[in-house]
Design brief:
This protein is α/β, with parallel strands linked by helices. The chain has one domain: TIM Barrel (Alpha-Beta Barrel). The protein is about 35% helix and about 15% strand. The protein contains 14 helices and 10 strands. It is globular, with a radius of gyration of 19 Å.
Length: about 350
């Protein structure tokens, strides 16, 4: 278990004091305009206080039209800076590295929140409109501008959300992205937007600013071989500090027949990663599972549901036999763990998570 509590250095900025990152978790708690709420502030700072080496915000949208859910934290305007500045200072004050996850939902933006959703190409299924070339260029700019805002607010870095079928994953998908310009066609063209955002963030933030990238290798029209090649290209490029692979379940085998016979995770841990750190997320619920992920080649782990159940999961993980409280839990338990009313209500929509009142 000792490896879980060894520091993790990154190519830029401060080291993590341990191998635990708080996963970027949807929580519906911020104000309708994207301004940070006291409830979201409490939820995140309590995790920093609870021992996470890096505390990451929920997905924060970089354009108003990219909002993915109600109560989402925003980073698309300077009106968000005071709340973000307060949050960054508090997270760092608890000895945790601070990061904002940068996000745009693309065709997954609810129409009742954004009006007309947008997408790499026209999408009849969701009614999303394809982006013009100029709008793609503006999207790159707005991701970069959001990172600059995070830098101004005092965060140690950002993570670029390229997973889970949101807009950057939509560009990576050959099923969703049917563009015929430089952002469509080959996987190199479809991944172009990701590299342009990384380059822009690096060019316009301070030298020790940290940049992470989240990818997921399945679902939403993604092809495992292409995501693996993209991951290798990002690792080889070396301009990011960490790659966060969201796997749904760290023990699962790939869905695609050609890749079965070994874990999905292993297709990424065997890549040459240079100075870039590689982490995994997906049902890491106990210290024993977290330790096994490091044994199996990950540099760090991202904790989601277990962090909802226990704000101090990293400290509790010093006991290798620790197991999170059994589900379902009471609403009172979640309130005591720093979840506000909107977050508790959201968790009640997850089957078997919250006891019926």
């Amino acid at each position: 278990m000792a490896d879980l509590f060894s520091p993790l250095t990154l190519a830029h900025g401060p080291a993590l004091k341990n191998r635990f990152m708080l996963a970027p978790l949807t929580n519906l708690q911020s104000h309708p305009d994207g301004v940070l709420s006291d409830d979201e502030f409490r939820w995140l700072t309590l995790r920093a206080k609870g021992g996470f080496g890096l505390t990451m915000t929920c997905a924060a949208h970089v354009q108003a039209v990219g909002q993915g859910f109600p109560g989402q934290l925003g980073i698309f305007g300077d009106q968000h800076l005071p709340g973000l500045t307060r949050l960054a200072a508090a997270i760092k004050g608890h000895g945790s590295v601070s990061s904002v996850q940068l996000h745009h939902a693309g065709n997954r933006s609810p129409k009742d929140l954004v009006g007309q959703p947008v997408c790499p190409s026209d999408d009849p299924e969701t009614g999303a409109r394809g982006l013009s070339l100029g709008e793609v260029e503006q999207l790159v700019e707005d991701f970069v501008a959001a990172a600059v805002r995070a830098d101004q607010a005092g965060f140690d870095g950002v993570e670029i959300h390229g997973a889970h079928g949101y807009v950057l994953a939509q560009f990576l998908s050959p099923e969703i992205n049917r563009r015929e310009d430089r952002y469509g066609g080959s996987i190199e063209n479809r991944a172009r937007i990701v590299f342009e955002i990384i380059d822009g963030v690096r060019a316009r933030t301070r030298p020790d600013f940290q940049v992470g990238l989240r990818l997921s290798p399945e679902r939403f029209g993604l092809r495992l071989a292409e995501i693996r090649d993209t991951a290798q290209a990002v690792l080889t490029d070396g301009r990011i500090d960490y790659l966060d692979m969201s796997l749904w379940d760290v023990f699962k085998e790939p869905v695609e027949e050609a890749f079965k016979g070994r874990s999905l995770m292993s297709w990424f841990t065997d890549l040459d990663r240079g100075n870039v750190r590689l982490g995994v997320a997906g049902k890491i619920t106990t210290p024993a599972i977290a330790a096994k992920m490091l044994d199996d080649g990950a540099d760090y782990v991202l904790i989601g549901r277990a962090a909802i159940l226990h704000h101090d999961f990293p400290e509790r993980a010093r006991d290798p036999t620790f197991t999170p409280i059994a589900l379902p839990v009471t609403a009172e338990h979640l309130q005591n763990e720093g979840l506000g009313p909107a977050f508790v209500t959201y968790m009640a929509t997850w089957p078997g998570f919250v006891q019926a009142a």
